[in-house]
């Protein structure tokens, strides 16, 4: 019998592994998880009950077309139903976008550091990543990204606000960038944290997409809506792109629980806005607290803060864990810290203050 293993695609060699936020240790010192940008609140009123009711029929396949959810989204955002495609979180839709546009020999441009799934899903498709460094202020360098476009470029991600830095690009510079991108290159505005934006100069991507056929917008129910465990996201894009996303989506990928919970969440917008407002207030308190301690922290429009610590990153992450909060370190670069419960944020600020005094 042959000892050879099955032949696998060469593109998978050396593929980076997605690193989820470390969970809080059960029964240990770590009491709060600030590592995954999750919403600390429980499901919105009525959402849990809706999901439980849907669970009664999970012996059946879900509605593959997500008909009810798509109709709700189309009405909510004032777009045609044909312009909406759903998937397993916004990252699932992002992977379908690359599969629909790029393969071996093609290029995908994104800022770096940005969402760590971008290099993974790009390499899986066989395409080549083109990483454009952030500016010194940890913001997308859109001029450099425009200059990086070649005849091989097929897709560009603009994560706005950016994960993990929380920084956002504003309307004038984003529109100027979009005007420079060739019409046959797809620009994906990844707006997973849109609900947390308070800067009036940061545009709504859905308004930009309307008269730009090469712009698609990603949104998710994982963050502000608190449905991270149900995996449902969507894209708003012109019909050719949206149709391609439906072709490349995993059949029945979005469960009926997720679909029904997402619809119920959209209908509980008043409660949602209240919770997001509370998190934004906590974000301001944490940000101002860090600045008062002496830290240099970029302005954030997301539900987290970014601290560039370089070689001290691992030490600070360990200090936080010892204090009872787990954060998301990017070794050698910095820390991303989710805005969580008030008690968790207090623990983090206390740890940051003590650590800064030792620098």
TrEMBL record:
Bias kind Basic and acidic residues: ranges: 1-12
Enzyme class: transferase
Modified residues (N6-(pyridoxal phosphate)lysine): 223
Catalytic activity: an aromatic L-alpha-amino acid + 2-oxoglutarate = an aromatic oxo-acid + L-glutamate
Cofactor(s) needed: pyridoxal 5'-phosphate
Keywords: Aminotransferase, Pyridoxal phosphate, Transferase
Pfam families (UniProt xref): Aminotran_1_2 (PF00155)
Span of domain Aminotransferase class I/classII large: 33-345
Signal peptide per UniProt: none
EC numbers on record: 2.6.1.57
Assembly, per entry: Homodimer.
Stated role: Aminotransferase that catalyzes the conversion of aromatic amino acids and 2-oxoglutarate into corresponding aromatic oxo acids and L-glutamate.
Protein name: Aromatic amino acid aminotransferase
Organism: Streptomyces bambusae
Gene for this chain: hisC
